[in-house]
Amino acid sequence: MPLPKKLLLLLLPVVALAAPSTTQVSADRPIINFRLPTFTADGYRSWLVRGSEARITGQNQIDIVGLTLTLFTGTADDKIDTMILSPAARVQPEEALVTGPDTIRVINDEFEASGSDWRFTHDKGSKENRISIKQNVHVTFRAELTDFLK
Fold first, then answer.
1. Cα 64 to the chain's mean position, in Å?
2. Is 72 helix (H, G, I), strand (E, B) or coil?
3. In a 3-state reduction of DSSP, which class is residue 121?
4. Which of the four pLDDT bands, split at 50, 70 and 90, describes residue 27?
5. Of 136, 127, 130, 68, the residue nearest 101 (C-alpha)
6. C-alpha triplet 99, 46, 117: angle, nearest 5°
7. pTM, 2 dp
8. Using a CB cutoff of 8 Å and minimum separation of 24, what contacts does 110-114 make?
9. What confidence tens digit (pLDDT) does each residue in 95-134 have?
10. In this structure, which of 49, 76, 87, 119 has its CB flanked by the most CB atoms within 10 Å?
11. CA dihedral 135, 89, 39, 80 (to 10 degrees)
């Protein structure tokens, strides 16, 4: 026997409240295909953190699997300056800090670098990026080095 329309209308809010929400972020579940863009004060893209999987592990801490960090020029041309790839990383967005114990590959028009146990920092005031690699460092320069040994 079908339910009366008045009873159906009364049950709808109860069913809606009982249904699980799919928009909640949970610390025990990964975020798949994670993306976190950062912009300059002028509204241009500064950098973009992407990962195949991410977990929020603290108030200002995100652990990323399959990191691709794209650094942009931060100007209206929106050109890519540098790409950083790593199988795992920890991002602290408020400090503009990304670190990782695993391998890293840095790709730029002027050089390519690789190694492990690394740290990327972005100084918001000077707009300067710094990458330090502590172990197994290998750098290949593509740019012409003039007066290098003088």
1. 7
2. strand
3. strand
4. low
5. 136
6. 15
7. 0.76
8. 110/141, 110/142, 110/143, 111/139, 111/140, 111/141, 111/142, 111/143, 112/139, 112/140, 112/142, 113/137, 113/138, 113/139, 113/140, 114/138
9. 999 999 999 999 999 999 999 999 999 887 667 889 999 9
10. 49
11. 60
Q: Which of 23-27, 75-79, 121-125, 137-141 has the lowest mean pLDDT?
A: 23-27
Q: How many CB atoms lie within 10 A of CB 21?
A: 6
Strand partners, 98: 91, 120
Domains of the chain: 28-141 (2.60.450.10)
**Is 66 within 8 Å of 52 (Cβ atoms)?**
yes
How many Å apart are CA 133 and CA 150, to the nearest integer?
26
- The strand pairing partners of 88, in sequence order, are 65
Find out whether 134 and 117 touch, Cβ atoms under 8 Å: yes
> Residue 76 carries which side chain, given as an amino acid letter?
A
Tokens for 41, please give them.
């004060």
Lowest mean pLDDT among 35-44, 80-89, 95-104, 140-149: 140-149
Tokens 């408020």, residue?
94
The model's confidence at residue 8, banded by pLDDT at 50, 70 and 90, is very low
**How far apart are the C-alpha atoms of 127 and 74, rounded to whole Å?**
9
